[in-house]
DNA sequence: GCGTAACCTTACGCACGAGTAAGTAGGGTG
DNA sequence: CACCCTACTTACTCGTGCGTAAGGTTACGC
């Protein structure tokens, strides 16, 4: 009719449309017809290029996840101090989410609630948690050299802490995704305060216990 | 056939079954037939007692949310110190999630990803965030009386912090829901350390800034 | 200028699952 | 014992939406 476009271009248009529709409707309620229509193409083209609904969703997932990872990795200088690395990573992360709210909703909500894709996502997530845990450990080692550590931490503790931090970040990101007016930079600052001050205190061996308010 | 049971009993059986199926399959993929079968009853009974699929899901949501709220409220002594209140609340919260993993998955994942129910859930969540924010503020006032505060905090800061904490807790709870072996008590301890030590440091006016590692 | 391959369409089959109509059986009350 | 109300069933209708068969059209190589 109007324009005949090469495959690669159409594929991106389809993925754009799919991410939008999946984000707004949810995986099941999203219809292939609506995705096709929004992409300005007919349904069989979607099947021809990107396969059935599952495969299409996975393609969305992978594209968005890759973009996110690249954005974060691109924002971090590996030679910087741990807190600077964290700060730059968080800035890049929240900036990305702020700019790709639909993508984030697909990644974080849809993929998670569909048992079929939860595994795929859990894997990506686990990698991030490990990176954060490694960052914490490196910060800890650094602090140890400065002679500030009082409680030796076990690997599981780093992992659990990293899990909690990642969860907190996701939660803030999720909030950001639904609040058009929120500034990603400010969200990142909040997260950084939240994480670093707490982490620093923890790394100095301060521990909360049930019997008294604080020790260390 | 076998047993004729009073309505109230059947309703609970149906809700039990519905929570399980919604949790395992997701809202859309869950079929009324499967729910009915698992409840040991035929489909029209479900419609007769609890209405259409939407209403059934909402009924699940409300039952689980109410139970959760009651469990947490029952665990907290309002006269205790803020950190003790928090500790008891977290203990009750994680204990509940550990004991009702299916219910938690329905609340946290399904409701969230279905735009139709997201609003309902967001309301419940907002109430929790407000409670946590109030707890933080009361802790802050208490600290202020002790003359430890150096940076005056604005209401938005409490809210954002509360949001991050709630997100971290949800994230840990979500992890707990998927890990049969994890002990809820330990999860609560981790969260408490994470929250309280960080919060205490923040309340003492320690702030992270981009230019230097720390101030205060 | 003509084949052919890539791009693109309309129009359908078909399964699955929500919701219902119509009717059966048990147990309490007169 | 006749009544009736509540618990319960089988056996359907019908919409919705995934996936496809079969065919049309543009661009490009030779």
Question: Which key features would you list for this structure?
Answer:
216 residues, elongated, 0% strand, mainly alpha, DNA-binding, homodimer, disordered C terminus, 9 helices
Give structural notes.
The structure is a homodimer of 216-residue chains. With 216 residues, chain A is an all-alpha fold. Helix content of chain A is 75%, strand content 0%. Chain A is built from 9 helices and no strands. In chain A, helix 6 crosses helix 8. Chain A is elongated. The termini of chain A are far apart. The interface between A and B is large, with 50 and 49 residues. The structure holds a DNA duplex (30 and 30 nucleotides).
**Low-pLDDT stretches of chain A:** 212-216
Which class of secondary structure composition applies to the elements of chain A? mainly alpha
Query: Number of helical runs of chain A?
Result: 9
Kindly report the greatest chain-chain contact and the residue count on each side: A-B, 50 and 49 residues
Radius of gyration of chain A: 21 Å
Write down the overall mean pLDDT of chain A.
Answer: 83
Into which percentage range does the β-strand content of chain A fall?
Answer: under 5%
Q: What gap, in angstroms, lies between the N and C termini of chain A?
A: 73 Å
**Largest sheet report of chain A:** none
List SSEs of chain A in N-to-C order: HHHHHHHHH
User: How many β strands of chain A by DSSP?
Assistant: 0
Which of globular, elongated, flat, extended, rod-shaped describes the shape of chain A? elongated
Say what oligomer this is.
homodimer
Helix content of chain A: over 70%
